[in-house]
Amino acid sequence: MIVEAGLRSGAMITARLALENNREVLAVPGRIDSPLSRGPHQLLKQGAVLVESIEDIVSSLGAIGAEMQDHVQTSMEELSQKEGTKKQPVIDHLTKTEQLIYCCLGQEPQHADHITGHTRLPVGKVTADLVSLQLKGLVKSLPGNLFKLTGH
């Protein structure tokens, strides 16, 4: 999966080779004025799979994706049960960067650019952690690159 890449980057070379060998390549579109979005945009034109949500990633992984989603869901259910007895918040079980992103979100949708600006984390890290938080059932992706808490 390519989130950011210049046209002549190593990531693009690897992605092009994968496409040439009929391997699935996923690409996340970015801002049209960003040089680091040119790579993913070119890959999308060449047949890469468009990633707009966590569901796109999970479905591209097939059986492994379904298994991974089941595992994450089971882990979060177990964590919720433990919370009932230990009173330990879900946020304590997140990485530091996941915690930063989680704290930026509420019930009102936030654009990914806002989250990136607020946390001052690299776009790729924000994207990866948003995917992780979605897999954990804590964040919901909405159209337009918007995200909000699920209400856990």
Output the strand order for the largest sheet.
3-5-4
The string of secondary-structure elements, in order, is HEHEHHHEHHEE
What is the assembly state of the chains in this entry?
Answer: single chain
Largest sheet: 3 strands, antiparallel
**Number of DSSP E strands:** 5
- Helix- and strand-based class? mainly alpha
Helix content bin: 40-55%
How big a fraction of the residues is strand?
A: 5-15%
- Overall geometry: globular
Low-confidence stretches are: none
Radius of gyration: 17 Å
Global mean pLDDT: 84
The count of helical stretches stands at 7
Determine the N-to-C terminus distance.
Answer: 28 Å
Question: Explain this structure to me?
Answer:
- The chain is mainly α and 152 residues long.
- It has helices at residues 10-20, 38-45, 54-60, 63-86, 96-104, 112-119, 123-135, and strands spanning 26-27, 49-50, 110-111, 139-142, 146-149.
- The protein has a three-stranded antiparallel β-sheet with strand order 3-5-4. Strands 1-2 form a two-stranded parallel sheet.
- Helix 3 (54-60) packs across helix 4 (63-86), helix 5 (96-104) crosses helix 6 and helix 5 (96-104) packs across helix 7.
- It starts with 9 loop residues before the first helix and ends with a strand.
